[in-house]
Description:
By secondary structure, this protein is α+β, with helices and mostly antiparallel strands. It has helices spanning 4-12, 172-177, 180-183, 187-195, and strands spanning 41-49, 57-65, 71-77, 83-91, 97-101, 106-108, 113-116, 122-126, 137-144, 149-157.
Amino acid sequence: MMTTHRFRNALLAGGTALCLGAALVGCSADDSGAAPAADSVTLTDAWGKAAEAGSMTAVFGTLSNSAGSPVTLTAVTTDVSPRAELHEMASDGSGSMSMREKEGGVEIPAGGDSVLQPGGEHVMLFDLSSPLKAGDQLSMTLTFSDGSTTDVHAQVRDFSGAQENYSESSGEATEHGGNMAEHGGDMAEHSGDMNGHTGG
């Protein structure tokens, strides 16, 4: 009969770490032995625009990936919003640029950064359950393509450079495209503001 020790060695022989109850610790997010994507990603210079309850707002910052392979952010959740989406700016087919939900998530390159910024990729929070006031800390959970998660925080700031007044009933492309000057047209002003802040 194979001993417990030999049986365990046989399971691990192929280089695949298996979770054997309390006997093993530090199991990865999958069976490949790779570290969870969440372990390699940090969010810095994170901030969100102050907004009233029932309205929407955006969150920006820099996602950095220390791993040797790219990782993909696929979802964001937060207690202050029942609906959080990853958005991008893209052509609407008529020669204009509009904001829309980013399919497939945000890819963060190996050893590199992905910047969430006005006029580019960012996080949108809809139907805020409570007001976000300057000085508040906004807590969010980031979920990656391998299912791993990490909790992050963003500083809420007063910022008048973008006044989003979307019509929820008008559809994603219309509600973003119709307010392009307000939501993304102040990209230079937003970016200059971000460069002047270091908190997150």
